[in-house]
Amino acid sequence: MRDRCSIRAARAALLYGLASVVACAPARIDTRPLFASLTYPTSSAPPPPPDRALQVFANLELEAITAYRNPQKMAACLRILKPRDIEAFGEELVKAGTSWARVAGKIPVYGACGEADDPALVRYVIARLATSATSMARSVSISEDLQRCEIYDKVPTALAAIADILEKTPARSEATEDAPALALSGGSSNGAFTAGFLFELFSLRERALPPEGDGGKYRFSAVVGTSVGALISQVVDLYYVDPATPVTATKAKLLDDCNGYWTHKPTPTCKADVDTQKSTRTDCFGGWPPDTGGLDADTRLSGLDAATRADLAARHPRQMCALTKLYKYFTDDDEQTLMCVEPGPITGAVDVLGRPHQNLMRFDPMYFNAVGPVLDDYSDETIANDITRVVVSVEIEQNQSVGLDERVCGGLPAGPAVNGQPQLVGGREYCLGGGVMASLVLPFFARPVRHVYDGITPGGRCGTWFDGGLRSGFPAYRALRMTRPAMRPLVADDSVPLRVLAISTGRFEGMPSPRPVDITKVAFDAIGQMSNSNQVDEIELAQQMALVREDQLYELKNGAKRDKVATVDASGTIDVDASISAVYVPSDAPDQIIAGGEYSFDRYIMRGLWLWGRRVAVQRVFGDPTAKPATPGLFERLGWKALEAKALAFANQDMATMKPWLDAYSLPECGDHANARTVAGRGRINGCVAQCPEVEAGATTFPQHLVCPKPPSATPSPECSKPAGAK
Predict the structure, then answer these.
(1) I need a surface site. Which of 53, 263, 319, 666 has the fewest CB within 10 A?
(2) Residue 3 CB contacts under 8 Å (≥ 6 apart), including other chains
């Protein structure tokens, strides 16, 4: 008992200075008891047995899910693949070395496999599946005798789950199938940079479209998001709903709310002085720039005046609503509209006093205010549109990074929130929303999601789901795998080599940070370092894989290697014809708006990042004809060349409109303004952020994906037994 008191007292003293409230007088107040209890816990649950089916699925879905000409036929193809064939192909392929493509070209393609797509692409996918399965069988910590049972025998289950996803793919045009994909990185409130970039890109697209609309062109084939990128990807999904679809009465509320935002904007009320004051100072940033030239802050920040917004809302209401969501979330929200505080004393975070909990806060308000309403009205239309959305999450109990595909939710019944009741557990909206939130929640800071539809577990998987940035902070590689290679005849037009537009929320080289002074700062900085490393590594992996994929497909199809192979220069970048275009926050963006982001949802920071996102988008749209080699404009690189002339004219207008705000942000922040922001931010959290409701079984006041709706299965997969005679 005394040891237990010592441990708890030390925890309290170390982390929160609350040792005086712990009734353990003999306690030794230093870090040794805490360290000892963490290193040698008196009791701990054994780790769960490995779920090989999930592990195999997580590996194979990355290889098999791409843009097929006939995804339903490809689903049938995957269902007829035999585990022994996968094993035989894989063993031969992993031994092939530089002859991999020639070996892959010998894989027989018959039946549905011959009808799914170009035989070269089908062979390539099967070869990648076999190579991945065999590499996994050889690398996991199991004996050679058990590889077949543990890995290869799980392949049919994984392929059947992938086939289920492909079968739910909506019909879409070849132009969309051949289009590039979007990859959106994590970064918490720094996502304002991504939001600003996409707002500018899409608003230019909207204004440049001909009166008859887009004709199914000027699109992305897929969007893959991690963390805040997952939240933004839902808005992108809404943007690409077919504008010709009639707006029914049941779907009008969200659109009315979007229109009403601009005309009846709420004024910040909590510690809001710093968010409402304007300044004319020219030596430092001391407040919002004053309205000049008859243009208000909304017009300066968005580039859209009231008449243009009304015109877009009338012609393309869903698209204007998506733009409004991007604007509101990242220029006009703060902590009190996005988060709540976990109930119970802070000491519960380290199991000192009160019920233990894993986190400091939750994103319940974000779910109810931002994520849920879009799904309640438009879950059916976002699944049925022609852009595929995937969000990345990490299930830490099984140590797996999983792409949560919206098509998994397509076969579930509708179950929106109605009359104050939560979304139906097991419904389409619940499935989609849980995926977004599972990609958003950062360990220690926010509560994990407990229940997610992972694509392979019937009824969804109960586990501990966290921010996908833990393993895939910049999902460019996954986005690349979902695109078709830009080579004939696999695409109708190979003049658009760009495969992925990848948007980061930080600088390529990262950001220096002050020396940490406490354990929590060390923890957050460590997570940030890990995320930064992932972002750089994933881009380089995607760039290299884009080249390797085309080389292998060429050799597989033609029986010989390509004469000319693109190269990567010493800086790690690829020339302007590269398949991957990465966008980072530029070096001239003020340090304070980049370093000050993360979980401080501060209007000064987010509006600054938003503006720089818009500015970088304009620069990308213009391109750089003076560079050597010349850099084409982004509309040309995306295959939107027909819209470029009009888009450039609007881009010039937008640069002029936002210039006063960019000039103001280029100044250092005034000391009194910075201090006022800090005081206001702490005041919002301490005085205006609500306490979250208790998460209790049967309660309906919190997002239902925070609890497991059914007890985890106590029956693991059948254990493999060693074959008779095996050593």
Answers:
(1) 263
(2) 33
